[in-house]
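Fold it.
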Amino acid sequence: MRIVALLVVLALATPVTPALGAPEGTLTWGLHVTLAAKWLDPSDTEAFINPFMVLYAVHDALVKPMPGGDNTPSLAESWSASKDGLTYEFVLRRGVKFHNGDPVTAEDVKFSFDRYRGAAAKVLKERVREVQIVDPGRVRFQLKEPWPDFMTFYGTSATGAAWIVPKRYVEKVGDDGFLKAPIGAGPYRVVSFTPGIDLVMEAFEGYWRKTPSVKRLVFRSMPDETTRAAALKAGDVDIVYLLSGPTAADVKRTPGLRLVAAKPPGVPYLDLPEQWDPKSPWHDRRVRLAASHAIDREGLNQAETLGLSRPTGGLIPRVLDFAKVYEPPPYDAARAKQLLAEAGYPNGFDAGDLTPFPPFFSMGEALVNYLQAVGIRTRMRTMERAAFLSAWREKKLRGVIMGLGAPAGNAATRIEVYVTKSGIYSSGVVPEIEDLFARQARELDRKKREAMLHQIQQIMHDRVLHVPIYELAFLWGVGPRVEEAMVDAIKGFSYSAPYEDLKVRAR
């Protein structure tokens, strides 16, 4: 078998750097979300970026997004693909161990893939014919047919399939035991975890890339934004995520604090699942377009993210490969009312609940008001994050959903999740899109593939399947003890990473 190398890893991978000294100090985060136990296990990774906040600390992947690029070799020192596009082979890095001392082997890689059941698991399992253990340090993926997006689905944060867990340990303790006492191969090991409250981790000095600089990391759930900001100002935490509006402005002008913006490939948008019901007002394209005209995207941008986000008319953010750029329709309440009247709703209609992606509740309130102003009457319904995601995934949410997702990947990975019949957050099927999506997945000619993905996005746009709002600027507050917070070090990643590169300011 002829193998053509796709990466010369010693040139592209982040170099192994010896530690200058033992890890010291503690950094504490005030998180905008409730810590979920499932984030400790890569096998159930959702199509959102949040789990990777934990995965980058506790676990490691064969390849993963790093400062060096989307498919940076990590537990694998190299990977290659055959000319026919049917075989991908990974050579494991020698001497790498899990936190319990077990070596990372090809068996762990196969086991982790077979066990994976998270985002896009169905697509991956349908396209991979077999995972072969060539020897303890080499593993081979045989595809059923050429698939140009294999490394995008497998080796980026589009899924958690490439993140490796220890086979022997998981089989010994079981899935529940693994969540209670997770063992990974990442730069930090879990010391304690209180679901929904906090996660405490300490540096794993045997981490292959480098010994982390900071000894202890503490994640604390603080869903209330004002509580997070107050804790930052008091010095109780060092980094807080998701600040908005007046709170962000206050942090920005506070001496000793920094306001920074990560630029994840995330687009808040309105998901309208009832559009597939012929009896629903949302079934009429004019009603969906009216909702789009009703939103003052730039006003919302200024109010929520101090003008740092970028209004858009496309669900796929322009930074992702194969994205087609759409400017948003203008804010025009009169046009929105006219469209509603043309659709048979001159007095508007009751649209039920508007359920925002937690914890973007202030944004949800603004959206309720914008829709109300043109006659689309909704009531905001807030949910705890895990309950929201489960209900959304199980198609139990009605009315209007304010969705958001920001994993890496490309236009195809986003379309799969939110538009196709296999997508875990899609609510209906457009046969033309299904056909184009299947064809582009087999197409090896990049220009032809791009044309098909652009065609899919045009259909999404023309039909107003969603109401995109803006490409999100994700605002953090950083305290005075932090020398290096690793903001945007990994292109498009919302959170601090790589954790082993964090630095505490010398006293």
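The mean pLDDT is 94.
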